[in-house]
């Protein structure tokens, strides 16, 4: 059975990315599969060739990649 957790708020900078990191860190220590998806973000043009800053932070923090 697929279970979905959708995190949202009524305003910006409410701590959604910070909370997501906590959930992902907790799930990394289980045998459950998980993924992070940010459906709305800042366009690449605003940050040259980089992705949304929140997504990049989560990739580097949780998944420990070299983006």
Mean pLDDT reading: 79
Q: Give the biggest sheet.
A: none
Strand content: under 5%
| Computed structural class | mainly alpha
Radius of gyration: 13 Å
Number of strands: 0
Instruction: Identify low-pLDDT runs.
Output: none
Termini separation comes to 32 Å
> Element order, helices and strands?
HH
Tally of separate helices: 2
Shape: globular
What does this entry look like structurally?
With 67 residues, this protein is an all-alpha fold. It has a domain at 34-66. 33% of the residues lie in helices and 0% in strands. It contains two helices and no strands. The protein has helices at residues 16-28, 53-61. The radius of gyration is 13 Å and the shape is globular. The mean pLDDT is 79.
Summarize the structure.
The chain has 67 residues and is an all-alpha fold.
Task: List the SSEs and their pairings.
Blueprint: H1 16-28, H2 53-61
Task: Quickly list its features.
67 residues; mainly alpha; 0% strand; globular
């Amino acid at each position: 059975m697929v279970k979905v957790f959708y995190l949202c708020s009524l305003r910006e900078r409410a701590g959604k990315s910070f909370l997501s990191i906590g959930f992902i860190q907790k799930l990394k220590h289980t045998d459950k599969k998980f993924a992070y998806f940010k459906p709305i973000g800042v366009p690449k043009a605003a940050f040259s060739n980089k992705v949304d800053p929140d997504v990049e932070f989560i990739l580097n923090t949780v998944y420990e990649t070299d983006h």
